[in-house]
Amino acid sequence: MTSFIVSSFSEDGPFLEQALPSITTAGKNPTLVCIMRGGVVTHHVLSWYRQIEGKEIQFLVSHRENSSPTYGSGVAERFIPEVEPLSNAFKLTIGNVENSDEGTYYCAVWFSYKYIFGEGTVVRVQVFKDTQRPQMTLLGPSLVEMKLYRSATFLCHAARYSPNALRIKWHLNNQSSQHRSYTYPAIQTSSNTFDQTAEVSIPAALWDQGVEVTCILEHETGVQHLTTRANNKKQRDCKPERSTHDGMKHARNETEVNPAIFGGMPLHIIFL
């Protein structure tokens, strides 16, 4: 029996990253990108699925390099898969996009008798774009929490963004965090935008040792990074890095700022 696992992580094999959590298109031909980590894209059978709210997940197409695609029942050939060996990625282009094409699209790979899925990309079809970039804040930790419980909790808040498809991730010293984290449900505001908060808790000893804590927001409007660590220096270079629409390329600017004070402890904020 086939096992379906909606996950972007596999302990002993490849995992999949979808470049954007959502795409808003106005009658154009959107292209979804799926990057393979921990494996070689040309060694696998690659698939795409679509999830429409309230319905079962639908198989769209599977393929591998230098072979003809296999389509699901009733799926039109305007769904065009493509392999990109140089970037170790595969893509799906939706030709002549229609309103009925809206939904969440998942890339998938068959490995070790199960499917490994990507994180999902929401496709929205509408005439006018209503995208708004999240306003990002990173807070924490509390001195009281660190003294009493020897734990350091950080909050990452994204405000007034649209659409509501958003991924919040945590890194420690530029590596994905394995510590306890939680993302609260998004809240819709009176202006039809969204707010969302996530938290991560790490041992206070790590914070005392100077570990860098980074919150990453992945949104249709781009990828934002906000990093902090305990430091007694009075000033620090601040380097904003913003991604282009595809979430892949970045530009840097440099400016100097004073340290922020969170929970009574002097920190400096690094926008990466």
TrEMBL record:
CDD domains: IgC1, IgV. Transmembrane segments: none annotated. The keyword Cytoplasm does not apply. SMART domains: IG, IGc1, IGv. PROSITE patterns: IG_LIKE. Residues 14-109, 134-231 form the Ig-like domain. It holds the Pfam family C1-set. Keywords: Immunoglobulin domain. Gene3D superfamilies: Immunoglobulins. This is Ig-like domain-containing protein. The lineage of its organism: Eukaryota, Metazoa, Chordata, Craniata, Vertebrata.
